[in-house]
User: Which sequence fits this backbone?
């Protein structure tokens, strides 16, 4: 029986092998609301930051910084938020705990939300009970943004109660736009945009069974409800609600006050207590604020003045109320926050922020006296509506948290009675993002986002990274130039804290002593040779206070005199040793009382082993030589790993120029037990080791080797008690820069270390992955010359860093944050292009100048931020016109004689405020200046040619070396380049129905995106220079941008906040010329630009066979790496038309597919990664389970499938082949017991997990070595199982029956194994931009 054509087409679509994982790596920075709250139930200054689609809980530190506690997606759009103060009783009812419907509410507050779900949502917060409330709450840890790591509290927001108000969506006549809460938490009011509002009366409720609503009544109020607030009452049972309502027919505003009764009063008697019509020419009402110390009074702030009114005046229609003109009427009052310090009766004060950055304190002294105090005029950026205040009990100062309007916000403090502010920290804002580039300056095979951010004089290029921050405890003056080594030393072996700090310079050494909290220079009494550079400085464990200095010409053992009474001796007795035969010391290390010194000889490196012995009777120190060992090659470093780390005896790691790593044991002679050959571990050929160390936790250990080319090689490290030698396996590499890697380890067992290259990094052992790399960010990503761990009381993870020639004592902050480095431009950047030839950013900016804005193109140095060149777009023939740049692309041309790099600029020309009547295509080249008067001006731009076209040039796309495709309005033009004449010739034009917003090319295939026509594929017939229509999308979309991954696959975004993938299948049996939608996914944020790059790293491992001893006498093992298997793929070497996204080819395990990156207008950064079918099958079932699980359902009551479904599509399987990383990643934050319960309750998830494990066992050498070490080889791998239902749906909404214990036992389902596999897979996919 033949299937219909459409079923064949659906079957063909299911055969495609593209599966996508979508995840936000940087959340939006736009703050819509800020509220003070008590959610955690213990003493902390907590605030809630409500963004468009996420909630963030932050804590205000004593230093005035914000620490992010948690940020959680709500799976919807937040419309409004308020805090409900509940005042729960302190005692918990044990009986209530037994019947609890949710986790107990910790604090005294509950969050109340309105969202696009159409529900009134009550939200609480809970934390892992294992983490104590007085745990280190961030003292001294300054964070400016959000993030989460394993060190953060395992907390989450959870729904308490949901009440349906209206249908989901954004209907302006349905309830769900504004919310306000009575000051005494008796009533909640919810308003629509116009014509109606509702009142919900609150009843007492418990912490464990929160059900606060007694009854809800809806009321009609004709007009547009602009503002709404409850007034402070003068009667404990009376409630007054004030509104500002606009009549869109009469074009007039009025104030309405409603009166009703709470408690046991007649709640149904809700009356319009009074109405006061404002004059038709009155200024626009901006804010309505209830005054706490003035019962039933409020302030109305307009564009021009501040008005004081009370309910009685509204009732009688008294229009002659008191008003005071604003001191600054040129800028709007954008934010108002009333102070929480209102102890003085009969007066109050509030803070007002203006759009120009001014901050005022408004003192309301009486009903006829309002005073304005200017606190800041130029210190702050433009202020956005979100603002909150908090009065500190310790000093009485007001802390104001201010959000920035398309610029950075701030946390400021105001002293009572002061007329100025103190900015304690900044709140980074990199929105809106109009364009961005992905660049890998450090050649780490890991791109970084550089965005066009902010506007006006705050416009900048922002470098966005997820980093580990630092808290700088103290720093010195820049007097550490030339530092080449640091050592932290203890006075005795039993000491916990460090006492000494040794610093080696190019030709000198300094010794410092920490006493009474001060670091004193004791170099003159140290007994060291201060005129040489040191190779090693260390303590001798056998003798308290005994130190050893080793330099190229000798060794000194001394005991510094620290007491002031003995300082006059000025001479310290000690031992000195010099190498024989004028040999020099090339490297050295100290372990306990053993000293290993490597001498450079003609025959190779000679390692001498000494032991320091101390005679307690005589007090004499002796240095005895125990052994010597000749190497067959020159040594480059030697380091010791203490026996407490991973071995039962100390081991010494030696790096050689062979290149290799040799591992020795002291038994009691030096014995070589292992050797690692490093010939193949290099991407540049410079594979000489620079450093090595071992990191370990309770489960596993790793040997890390830092190479001089900037790469780290890591092995999983084990120790065979039977053979008394190491066992290495699972090798991987990671490039972290271009400079030599210095690994800074601690002497004791640690699971994390610091690595230095171009930038400092922290390397951790991750729970489910192997090695995690996170950049450490100082203020501006400074190059760190040297570092050493330094233990100090009450400081965890303290380090001494030398950067910018200064010595920093700092503490690593164990929370990741979004670090923003800004290159300030002073104008609004609209387009950005990275030119790899000149290593410059080409930036098109809009210059705000009279009489109209002007476009300017700049060459910006990405490192220094200096502007090398400016080109102002001007039209000499039409000087009154203005020109805006819409497109900026690079064009690489290769001719017989040379290679050219051209810069193509497309613009639109405007006359007045009308639509663009024309545009230009301009071709530039960047020329390096041989001589320049300005040292910052090394390059300039030269215009080669231009062509004017009818219509604005929105898009330019190069096509081979001959053609240029441009979009002039709704016309597609094919331009041909004539280099000899330096001109562009229009050879073909095609008019489309809608304006063109994107053009992508792959070989001769063209993808066109239009404003309302979605995506269309064309073919260019080069012999005839004609366009041939192929296929277009069936659905109309408001397309914003698209990107072509190969000839058959394009990914686009639209103005509804969707991302979609369209497939051109030449073998599609359907006769309709329609593209197939592989996926369509609603993000709820508009993405104006898509790029491809390499984000994160594929850790590829090489299986290591059991190697035989190469030398029976030395029992030596040798490992040779396979370069082809471990090297990460470089974007420069991979073919641009093979990014790993072929729709009908399996995802290769040997290559890393490009990642599609999208930046939203609100500042979010999304990654769209291709995953294999086996991983998709597992995660799709997990997603269908979590979207209905009570602790992972959408927070604000949305239907998950509805919010992730594209509005414009009606296809039944439109989101089938994409995984929502936000949803499935919630699995990582659930307790292990709940993870077990989820699997035990869903048979399909267990089966999917077993299928995935079988795939991993069959196809991964790494997994084979783990799972099949004691078993026969597995059967040949079977074809991947696609877990789709018959109609193509990916198990969405399916109900699963829980398995019984007997079924689990029968199926031999190892739930722990499946849970670990899921967590490992999610950790691999959830990469960071670092």
Assistant:
């Amino acid at each position: 029986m033949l299937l219909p054509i459409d079923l064949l087409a659906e079957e063909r679509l299911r055969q495609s092998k593209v599966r996508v994982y979508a995840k936000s790596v940087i959340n939006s920075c736009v703050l819509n609301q800020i509220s003070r709250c008590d959610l955690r139930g213990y003493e902390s200054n907590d605030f809630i930051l409500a963004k468009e689609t996420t909630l963030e809980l932050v804590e205000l530190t004593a230093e005035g910084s914000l620490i992010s506690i948690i940020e959680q997606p709500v799976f919807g759009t937040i419309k409004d938020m308020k805090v409900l103060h509940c005042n729960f009783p302190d005692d918990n009812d044990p009986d209530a705990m037994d019947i609890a419907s949710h986790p107990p509410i910790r604090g005294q507050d509950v969050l109340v939300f309105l969202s696009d779900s159409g529900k009134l949502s009550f939200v609480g917060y809970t934390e892992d009970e294992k983490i104590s409330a007085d745990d280190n709450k961030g003292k001294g840890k300054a964070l400016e943004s959000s993030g989460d790591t394993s060190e953060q509290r395992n907390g989450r927001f959870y729904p308490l109660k949901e009440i349906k108000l209206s249908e989901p969506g954004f209907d302006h006549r349905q309830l769900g736009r504004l919310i306000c809460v009575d000051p005494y938490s008796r009533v909640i009011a919810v308003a629509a945009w116009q014509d109606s509002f509702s009142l919900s009366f609150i009843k007492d409720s418990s912490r464990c069974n929160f059900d606060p609503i007694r009854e809800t009544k809806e009321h009609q109020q004709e007009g547009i409800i602009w503002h709404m607030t409850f007034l402070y009452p003068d009667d404990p049972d009376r409630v007054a609600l004030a509104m500002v309502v606009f009549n869109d027919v009469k074009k007039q505003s009025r104030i309405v006050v409603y009166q009703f009764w709470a408690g046991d009063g007649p709640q149904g008697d809700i009356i319009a207590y009074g109405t006061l019509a404002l004059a038709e020419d009155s200024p626009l009402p901006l804010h309505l604020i209830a005054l706490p110390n003035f019962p039933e009074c409020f302030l109305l702030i307009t564009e021009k003045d501040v008005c004081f009114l009370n309910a009685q005046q509204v009732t009688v229609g008294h229009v002659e109320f008191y008003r005071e003109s604003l001191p600054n009427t040129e800028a709007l009052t954008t934010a108002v926050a009333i102070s929480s310090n209102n102890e003085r009766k009969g007066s109050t004060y509030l803070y007002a922020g203006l759009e120009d950055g001014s901050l005022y304190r408004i003192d309301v002294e009486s009903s006829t006296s309002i005073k304005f105090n200017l606190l800041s005029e130029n210190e702050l950026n433009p202020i956005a509506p979100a603002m909150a205040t908090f009065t500190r009990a310790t000093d009485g100062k007001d802390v104001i948290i201010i959000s920035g309007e398309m610029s950075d916000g701030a946390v400021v403090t105001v002293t009572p009675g002061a007329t100025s502010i103190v900015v304690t920290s900044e709140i980074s804002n990199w929105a809106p993002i109009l364009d961005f580039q992905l660049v890998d300056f450090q050649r780490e095979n890991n791109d970084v986002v550089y965005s066009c951010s902010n506007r006006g004089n705050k416009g900048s290029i922002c470098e966005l990274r997820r980093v580990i921050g630092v808290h700088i405890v103290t720093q010195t003056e820049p007097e550490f130039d030339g530092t080449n080594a640091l050592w932290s030393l203890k006075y005795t072996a039993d000491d916990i804290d460090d006492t000494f700090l040794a610093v080696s310079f190019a030709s000198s050494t300094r010794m410092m002593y920490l006493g009474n909290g001060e670091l004193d220079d004791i170099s003159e009494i140290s007994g060291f040779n201060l005129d040489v550079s040191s190779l090693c400085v260390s303590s001798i464990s056998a003798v308290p206070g005994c130190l050893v200095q080793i330099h190229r010409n000798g060794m000194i053992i001394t005991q510094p005199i620290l007491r002031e009474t003995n300082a006059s001796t000025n001479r310290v007795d000690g031992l000195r040793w010099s190498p024989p035969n004028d040999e020099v010391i090339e490297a050295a290390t100290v372990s306990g009382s053993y000293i290993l010194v490597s001498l450079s000889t003609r025959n190779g490196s000679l390692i001498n082993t000494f032991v320091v012995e101390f005679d307690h009777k005589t007090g004499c120190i002796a240095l005895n030589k125990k052994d010597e060992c000749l190497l067959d090659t020159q040594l480059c470093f030697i380091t010791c790993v203490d026996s407490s780390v991973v071995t039962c005896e100390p081991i010494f790691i030696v790096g050689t120029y062979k290149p290799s790593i040799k591992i020795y044991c002291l038994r009691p002679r030096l014995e070589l037990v292992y050797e690692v050959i490093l010939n193949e571990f290099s991407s540049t050929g410079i594979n000489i080791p620079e450093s090595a160390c071992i990191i370990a936790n309770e489960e596993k250990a790793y040997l890390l080797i830092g190479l001089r080319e900037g790469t780290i090689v890591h092995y999983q490290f084990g120790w065979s008690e039977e053979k008394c030698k190491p066992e290495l396996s699972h090798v991987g590499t990671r490039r972290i820069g271009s400079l030599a890697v210095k690994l800074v380890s601690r002497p004791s067992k640690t699971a994390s270390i610091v690595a230095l290259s171009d930038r400092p990094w922290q390397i951790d052992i991750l729970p489910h992955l192997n090695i995690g790399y996170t950049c450490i960010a100082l203020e501006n990503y400074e190059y760190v010359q040297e570092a050493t761990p330094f233990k100090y009381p009450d400081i965890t993870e303290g380090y001494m860093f030398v950067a910018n020639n200064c010595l920093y004592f700092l503490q690593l902050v164990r929370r990741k944050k979004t670090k923003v480095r800004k290159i300030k431009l002073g104008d609004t950047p609209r387009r950005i292009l990275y030119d790899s030839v000149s290593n410059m950013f080409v930036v098109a900016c809009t210059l705000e100048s009279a009489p109209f804005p002007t476009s300017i193109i700049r060459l910006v140095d990405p490192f220094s931020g200096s502007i090398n060149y400016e080109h102002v777009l001007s039209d000499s023939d039409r000087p009154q016109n203005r020109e805006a740049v819409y497109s900026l692309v690079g064009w690489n041309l290769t001719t017989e004689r040379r290679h050219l790099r051209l810069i193509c600029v497309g613009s639109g020309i405007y006359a007045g405020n009308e639509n663009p009547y024309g545009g230009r295509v301009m071709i530039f080249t960047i020329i390096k200046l041989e001589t320049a008067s300005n040292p910052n001006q090394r390059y300039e731009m030269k215009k080669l040619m231009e062509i004017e076209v009818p219509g604005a040039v929105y898009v330019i796309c190069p096509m081979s070396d001959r053609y240029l495709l441009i979009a002039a309005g709704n016309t597609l033009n094919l331009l041909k380049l004539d280099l000899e004449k330096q001109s562009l010739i229009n050879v073909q034009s095609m008019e489309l129905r809608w304006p063109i917003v994107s053009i992508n090319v792959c070989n001769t295939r063209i993808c066109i995106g239009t404003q309302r026509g979605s995506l269309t594929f064309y073919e260019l017939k080069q012999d005839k220079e004609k366009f041939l229509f192929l296929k277009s999308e069936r659905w109309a979309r408001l397309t914003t941008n698209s990107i072509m991954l190969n000839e058959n696959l394009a990914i686009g975004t639209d103005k509804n906040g969707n991302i979609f993938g369209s497939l051109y299948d030449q073998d599609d049996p359907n006769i309709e010329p329609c593209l197939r939608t592989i996926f369509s996914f609603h993000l709820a944020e508009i993405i104006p630009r898509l790029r491809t790059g390499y984000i994160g790293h594929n850790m590829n491992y090489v299986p290591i066979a059991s190697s035989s001893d190469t030398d029976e006498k030395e029992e030596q093992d040798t490992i040779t790496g396979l370069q082809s298997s471990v090297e990460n793929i470089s974007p420069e070497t991979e073919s641009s038309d093979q990014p790993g996204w072929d729709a009908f080819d399996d995802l290769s395990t040997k290559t890393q597919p490009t990642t599609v990156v999208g930046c939203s207008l609100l500042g979010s950064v999304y990654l769209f990664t291709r995953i294999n079918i086996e991983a998709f099958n597992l995660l799709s079932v997990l997603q269908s389970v979590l979207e209905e699980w009570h602790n992972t359902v959408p927070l604000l009551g949305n239907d998950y499938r509805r919010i992730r479904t594209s509005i414009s599509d009606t296809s039944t399987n439109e989101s089938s082949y994409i995984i929502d990383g936000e949803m499935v990643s919630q699995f990582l934050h659930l307790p292990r017991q709940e993870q077990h319960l989820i699997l035990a309750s869903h048979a399909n998830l267990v089966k999917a997990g077993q299928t995935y494990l079988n795939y991993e066992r069959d196809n991964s050498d790494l997994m084979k070595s783990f799972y099949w070490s004691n078993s026969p080889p597995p059967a040949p791998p079977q074809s991947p199982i696609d877990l789709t239902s018959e109609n193509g749906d990916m198990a969405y909404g399916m109900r699963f029956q829980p398995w019984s214990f007997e079924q689990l036992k029968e199926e031999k389902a190892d739930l722990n194994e499946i849970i670990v596999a899921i967590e490992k897979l999610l950790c691999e996919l959830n990469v960071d931009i670092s």
